[in-house]
């Protein structure tokens, strides 16, 4: 799987690609990430990649030409019809279902915008889809590109530890769509607060029941929409429903 990232700031990605869990997928080439800088395709003496917006207004707009040339150069070196993805606040919000779709693909050309935006003619001519991280304002598409690549890398075989992968298989949060339960580690007492007794009991059935109940209560409190979705997908048992009625 290969992702070509079009960015004015490839250096933002260097520690991301070489540190942490996802690094394994990048260093093994399972998720091959290449960079292309529109600045290298700027044609004028000043290597301009932006200019003032027609019609006036604040900020600068990325030129279509260097972006098109970057994409054309990428197309020569990869012999497939990889889709061009633009990270943009007007895009479809990224979720785990989309990440799963990408993790089974052969990759894409990821375009990161900067400044006020990108000349619309580049978008109309070359962009196949737009992805957003949500309704808040970032300075550009690089962090969203890293978010997508990180989420994809985690799903590659051998990237998560055996126990993490097993947890994904058996308790995949997306299988029932509930939020995670609280976690505790040593010491048993910290800042006058103790670990819930059930977690020290060694009674695995009680622990699992407690965790399921915590997940249900937390989800009902913070994300009632996810309870409704799990219910509609037939993922809540009658025991789950009883637990929700008890403390809900
Ligand atoms: C504050 C300026 N905005 C309207 C007046 C327009 C705007 C332009 C460029 C807002 C954000 C950006 C840069 N953002 C991204 O490139 C971006 C983004 C984001 O800001 N939020 C969530 N997801 C994404 S994906 C790409």
Protein architecture, described:
Strand 9 and strand 10 (193-194) form a beta hairpin. By secondary structure, this protein is of the alpha/beta class. It is elongated and about 70 Å long. The strands form 3 sheets. A 5-stranded parallel beta sheet has the order 2-1-6-5-8. It has helices at 14-18, 23-27, 64-77, 96-103, 120-126, 142-154, 162-171, 173-176, 204-222, 224-232, 238-247, and strands spanning 2-6, 32-36, 50-51, 61-62, 84-93, 107-112, 117-118, 129-132, 189-190, 193-194. 42% of the residues lie in helices and 16% in strands. It starts with a strand and ends with a helix. The chain folds into 2 domains: 2-153, 3-Layer(aba) Sandwich (Alpha/beta knot); 169-247, Orthogonal Bundle (Trp Operon Repressor, Chain A). The structure holds ligand 9D3. The site of ligand 9D3 has 15 residues, from strand 5.
- The chain-level structural class is alpha/beta
Q: Give the DSSP E fraction (strand runs of 2 or more residues).
A: 15-25%
Query: What's the gyration radius in Å?
Result: 23 Å
Mean pLDDT: 95
Find the CATH topology of the largest domain: Alpha/beta knot
Low-confidence stretches: none
Q: Can you tell me the CATH class of the largest domain?
A: Alpha Beta
Give the helix level as a range of percent: 40-55%
Strand order within the widest sheet? 2-1-6-5-8
Instruction: Please give the largest β-sheet.
Output: 5 strands, parallel
Gap between N and C termini, in Å? 45 Å
């Amino acid at each position: 799987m290969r992702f070509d990232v079009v960015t004015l700031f490839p250096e933002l990605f260097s520690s991301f690609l070489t540190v942490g869990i996802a690094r394994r997928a990048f260093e093994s080439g399972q998720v091959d990430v290449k960079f292309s800088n529109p600045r290298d395709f700027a044609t004028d003496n000043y290597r301009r990649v932006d200019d003032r917006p027609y019609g006036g207004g604040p900020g600068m707009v990325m030129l279509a030409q260097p972006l098109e040339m970057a994409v054309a150069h990428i197309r020569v070196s990869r012999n497939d019809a990889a889709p061009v993805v633009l990270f943009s606040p007007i895009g479809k919000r990224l979720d785990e279902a989309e990440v799963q779709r990408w993790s089974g693909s052969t990759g894409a050309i990821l375009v990161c915008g900067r400044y006020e935006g990108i000349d619309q003619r580049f978008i109309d001519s070359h962009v196949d889809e737009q992805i957003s991280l949500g309704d808040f304002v970032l300075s550009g598409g690089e962090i969203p590109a890293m978010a997508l690549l990180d989420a994809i890398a985690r799903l590659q075989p051998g990237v998560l530890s055996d126990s993490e992968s097993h947890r994904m298989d058996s308790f995949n949060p997306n299988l029932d769509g509930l939020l995670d339960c609280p976690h505790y580690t040593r010491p048993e007492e910290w800042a006058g607060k103790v670990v819930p007794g059930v977690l020290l009991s060694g009674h695995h059935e009680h622990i699992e029941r407690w965790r399921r109940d915590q997940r249900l209560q937390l989800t009902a409190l913070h994300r009632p929409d996810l309870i409704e979705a799990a219910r509609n997908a037939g993922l809540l048992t009658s025991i789950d429903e009883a637990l929700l009625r008890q403390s809900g």
